[in-house]
Amino acid sequence: MTPQDLATLSPQERLDLTLDLLESPAAEGVALTPAQDAALVQRIAGLRDVHDELEWTKPLLAEAIAEIDRGEGVPLAEVEARLDGLLVQCQRNSRSFVRTEKTCTATRCATASRTQRP
């Protein structure tokens, strides 16, 4: 197995391979120092704690697939049209907010300068 092959393995597959290698007969003749053994145990424990970053998406994906299977899915073109509409609305609201904020800032500055004059 090449380093490139190892790089393509998932964390779980790397953990399984590590455990297989440690339990193999060839590993029985290898003597580790206590420090090496402790480091190895710690690294293996860390691999077990690796969390799939996309694990939270699995229930959402399963529900989306079920909706499609039931014929409840929304066509991609419709989703894109909705998103485009939201983008336009957000851009319009942003410009409005900026104009309002500049007006408010200018009003506050003018008011403050009038009230500070002796």
Describe the 3D structure.
0% of the residues are buried. The protein contains six helices and no strands. The protein folds into two domains: 1-52, no CATH class; 75-118. The protein starts with a helix and ends with a helix. The chain has 118 residues and is mainly alpha-helical.
Task: Annotate the secondary structure layout.
Blueprint: H1 3-7, H2 11-23, H3 25-28, H4 34-48, H5 57-69, H6 76-116
**First-to-last CA distance:** 84 Å
- The number of distinct β-strands equals 0
Q: How many strands, what sense, and barrel or not for the largest sheet?
A: none
Low-confidence stretches: 105-113
Shape designation:
elongated
Please tell me the total number of domains. Answer: 2
Structural class: mainly alpha
Helix count equals: 6
| β-sheet strand percentage | under 5%
What is the gyration radius calculated from CA atoms? 30 Å
Average pLDDT over all residues: 74
Q: Please provide the ordered H/E string of secondary-structure elements.
A: HHHHHH
Instruction: Indicate the percent of residues in helices.
Output: over 70%
Short description:
The protein is an all-alpha fold. The protein has helices at 3-7, 11-23, 25-28, 34-48, 57-69, 76-116.
